[in-house]
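Possible race condition, two jobs.
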Amino acid sequence: MNRRQFLSRSVIAISAASFAEWLVGPGLLAAAPASPASSADKDTVKIIQFDDAGKKIGHERVKVVRKTDAEWQQQLNAIQFQVTRKAATERAFTGQYFDLHDKGLYRCICCDNALFSSDTKFESGTGWPSFWAPIANENVRSSNDLSIGEARTAVSCTECEAHLGHVFDDGPQPTGLRYCMNSASLKFVKRA
């Protein structure tokens, strides 16, 4: 999306929201308060487990992995910490997996959650490992990212909230998506 398209879409979205609020009245568009979640619901997430061969084991509710920055720094090297915990981006063509063509599974470097399969990896020419789909939608989350002044969709690990990269809508079929991931956020497990 170029700058003109971005600005046009922003103006349209703001105008539509203003008109909708005028139409139904102020404050009526706000979402109804959610029912209070139990402590267990806030501390756990549902993911799909996979073995190292990429075979689906099944749904599981797991505890969200939370650590202090000091604990993450003991576990991760400097670039892994900056990418996964501080939402940095590694330089293009420098990560260990952008040009890897082996068959296997890509897990989260922080918590070992299964994220992507080599079966959906493709050569995007961007210098980062790219996939047209995660191994399971439940295992990744997306959120709005305006950190560079442009709307993007950030992707993170469901289990530990590690920043993985971004997803774009310029990928191949069947999804048309490009999950552009940082090698530093991934751990590759080669298929035996």
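Job #2 (started ~2 s after job #1):
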Amino acid sequence: MKRLDGVTVVTAASTSVFVDNIAKSAVRDLPDIHDLPEWREGLPVALVGGGPSLADNLGELKRYKNIMLCGSVHDYAVRSGVKAKWAVCCDPDPIAAAYYQEPRDECVYLIASACDDAVHDALKGRRVVRWHSGGSDLSPQIWGADRKVLIGGGCTVGTRAFMIAMCFGFTNIHFFGFDGCLRGGQVHAYDLADGDDSPLGDVSEIRLGSPDGPSYLMAGYMMGQLFDFQRLLGRYGDRLSLTVHGDGPLNDLVKFLEDKKNGESD
């Protein structure tokens, strides 16, 4: 696995948007994520992204008791018969409300304090739990969170959900739909909601490992997510059992780190 330089990842909205959304969240009467009884649960968990490979693994996914949906995958998963315990959102853009047109009573919605009011409107009457997305240059006092839990992780909802799962006590983590690349020109297993037309930006063919190693078409944020996972797994991987359902850069990274741990890779 080689480091790729020159990749810049920027936030989806300005700092002022984050601050405004956080202030609005502060006045809502919501429980905080670290007050949930499952905060230290230690069973296997399936984290679900929206990559194209998800469509091939839905049957296996449905066998899991603990399922956590990440971002825009929610409605597709619900329509596919997936019964999730949690759904995570951290996108500050109001378009994120379109991800939750089919909310379910049995699902707990883990909504970052930086999310827009429109997300809360879409989830009115459902069980919503707040969490604070830390790790940025924003002062903890902005959240009113100087004594709260701030959850870091990286540049995507997938890396944040990974951290939430670890905070819950999960050590046996399974990834579904975490392709981290374009497949047949597709980014997701489904069409995004009308209006959710954020450009991919520059897409590059990236070859991992040796000159004859696998290559993938990746947008900048996909590379950013892979770097974040490399950092997180380097820090926490020794205490975790990780399985990626489907091929892709994350699967290669997990295998590389496992081989390195076993002394099979430099």
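The chain has a mean pLDDT of 88.
Logs attached separately.
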